[in-house]
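Following up on my earlier thread - several people asked me to post the actual chain instead of describing it. Fair enough. Here it is, all 333 residues.
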Amino acid sequence: MRMQKAWFYEEYGPKEVLKLGDFPLPTPQNDQLLVQVHAAALNPIDFKRRRRPIFPSDFPVVPGCDMAGVVVEKGENTTKFNIGDEVYGNIQDFNAEGPLKQLGTLAEFIIVEESLVAKKPKSLSFQEAASLPLAVQTAIEGFITAKFEKGQTIFIVGGAGGCGTLVVQLAKHCYGASKVVASCSTPKVGFVKSLGADEVVDYTKTKYEDIKEKFDFLYDTVGDSKNSFVVAKEDAPIIDITWPPTHPRAVYSSLTICGENLEKLKPYLESGKLKPIIDPTGPYDFKDAIEAFRYLETGRAKGKVVISPFPFSHLPSSIVTNGSAAVPEIVIN
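Reply from S.P.:
Thanks for posting it. Predicted structure:
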């Protein structure tokens, strides 16, 4: 059996249940790709899933949804990608039947259906690409669920977080909001304004009740809709990305996981209208994954917590390296 290095846990609990060790490396089947991971990003769902069984899955579990890397093997029914292609995506389809993948993205190699990934834009590094998938898919879904229209106003709760930084940019540069207001803590006010927010509310100094203006759309990225709802107009949609929403008017939008949605973002990414935001404490080295989780769980991240580089010294015997990309000696046809 081919083996690889990965972070995994065999019981629910705090970050200390994570172990670094050998993990089986599967062979891609049918429409699957085997991707050598160059960078991965952490999301709150990764530590929430580790703490308790919110999604069915067998042990051991390798955490991680987001990655960017290079295709090194592919199943016989794949049609979109070739060996050596640089791809990125969220490999966990939360809407699929059955348990989630045991093999997440904190591993040297991952298996993923080709429909879930897209070609990495050439203008992005692996770290930047890895920071995007789940957060940007979540951000876009909120606008779709709310049926947001060009020219409307939006208030974003948590404008400095992994999802919030993208919601601010999408509202201003992609969806044509007439006014973008976002909340964050004092040290991040200037940063959120630089993303495109017209106004930034420092939540340590201003209460929601003190905000006189009412907005066409309230996008809550931190799960505080039980309090933030007061800034929304009476009939305005309220999106809360945490489950369950904390206010009866708030809607938790479903999530569409597919590479096609990422492909549509390519012109915005290459033009610079949409910029990946990586927390300045990172990227964290693969060996420092527990420290990366510790920081993410403080709730103080500015943008996304990214892990890179990944080890390339522990390669299966069927795969050899050629420069920066891994190329297999035997291709699965």
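The longest strand covers residues 32-42. That should answer part of your original question.
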